[in-house]
Amino acid sequence: MYKQFLKKTIVVVAGCFVFASCAHVKEYQKSRLNDSEMSLSSRKVEKNELNFESYREGASGANGGKTGGGCGCN
Amino acid sequence: MLLHAFAQTTATDSTIYKSRPLKLDEVNLASSYYTQTGDHSAVMGGQTGVLGDETVKDFSNGIDLKFVGWGAHQQKHTFTAGLGIDYHTSASAKYVSITGASKTGGSRIYPSLNWEMDNQAKGFGLGAGLYYSSEYNYHSFGMDFQFSKKTHTNGEFSAKVNAYLDQVTLIYPSELVPGSKTTTTTTDSTTITVYTTASGRTITTSSGGTSTNSSGEKYHIPTTPRNTVSGSFSFSQVINKRLQGSINFDLVAQSGYLGLPFHRVYFNTGKDTVENLPSTRYKLPIGARLNYFLGDKVILRAYYRYYTDSWGLTAHTASLEVPYKITPFFSVAPFYRYYTQTAAKYFAPYEAHKTTDQYYTSNYAYSAFTSGFFGVNIRIAPPDGIFKSKLSALEIRYGHYTQTTDLLSDVISLDFKFK
Fold first, then answer.
1. pTM of the full structure
2. Cβ pair B198, B97 in contact under 8 A
3. Where in chain B is the domain with CATH 2.40.160?
4. pLDDT 10s digits, B335-365
């Protein structure tokens, strides 16, 4: 029951962040957002980590890595 | 005078957009060394001890060449040609032969081609990719198509469809090779029987005696298909000047031979067999990222994923990486990743499956476990290049991974970007 509550809380909080206060940010105000380490994707250097995780764990996907197929992984 | 004003010819505007041909824009070199120890090898049905040795060492290298050109109407075209080569050794592979005489090393080569078109005037993009992977027991051909569209409120939606058409080579444990044979009768009434072994060699026997094919003429080891189709969807949004996030999910459908033919399962009777998994699997991972620029020097990169599939496995992943910018061009980022999963419904440990089970595996990747992965990422990217060279960025990343199944691994990766 605690896990169900935690799941719902995470979804609601994430939703609030995304939808509640999307301020209009002008291009000249994006200096911090455009920093390479603010990128919303895995780093290129993480590629091999995503690979070994797909072999050693049952879950995959939703992270820019493989979702299945392309290798003898899970 | 008024007529003279209107008679002026306009000077050619040198900033008017022009097409530009493809030019090499960036080269990425990546190298990674992975080493692992463990004690529940799937090749030996999840046994522990010497027979369960899961020691693996993997050395992988890749190069990407990125070419950029501009077409009409502010369309930026990017072509990326990639090549990856991995070499690995796996202690458990020697027990594909029950005597422990099988090869432990192998290599994999995987080229790729990608094209992306970004229409900066209209705010949409298209892309396509082709992928190939080849290793001794597995061959894959893949392709994808993608579309993206920016919104007027600093958001972006993207969708990708991807398919992999794979062939699994049916290399069975030596004692479980199906009794593959063909028998023919020659004109002089001699009966010739040809047996195919796990290594693909043929042994020819004729009535009254036996002989071995002297050249070990390679017989084609049969293969069987494994197909994967997926749709990936992503929405990202700038929330304020310091915060942006994204939500992604995939819909994945797999069909065909979804196990590996050299994975053994030992029943509770002691008899061994090849693992048997269903021929379909549906997966649903849902992930979210949130990145926040705290102050002037610290970034918080958070990630969470929920996963569920039709084999009864559910998993949660959460990670946090905290880049600290020592200077604007040099950062150190410690990270931690937590992962937990329930067991798939077809998993049971060594000698726990019943002979009446329809599907069975003792591959501990499908067991219930928790893992932790921590490490550090260092990034150096001065604006004029490192030591004023073409090397524009260097990243070094180290991580230590542990599972509650007693699997441990270390990985160190390097990435060089040349511009």
1. 0.86
2. yes
3. 38-170+226-418
4. 999 999 999 999 999 999 999 999 999 999 9
